[in-house]
Amino acid sequence: MQLFIYGDELWILFGNTPSELFTYITGIALGNIAGETVLNKEIKVVAGITAMTMWALLTIIIEQLSLKSPMIRVLFDGEPAIVIKNGKIQRKAMALSKLNG
């Protein structure tokens, strides 16, 4: 969970956002490609390195796009929930964010 204070509002972004999931899946995919390259004798090392490079470039491009484009960022990270506004707890936002309090 990440907390951001913007003016008199408290924004909460929860862990396990889609971008964190994407990073996790990318790590698994790169490890799988590396493992298959090392263990499978039918796969040439150059092909494995090429595949890992392509996957890494795809990941970097997607990460950069999410940094530059607010629309893509919302797609990957979602909208933050404002749970305290003007010093008042926003119960509806808390319920939508599956918080109690």
TrEMBL record:
Stretches that traverse the bilayer: 21-39, 45-62
Keyword Membrane: yes
Alphabetical UniProt keywords: Membrane, Transmembrane, Transmembrane helix
Domain of life: Bacteria
Protein name per UniProt: Uncharacterized protein
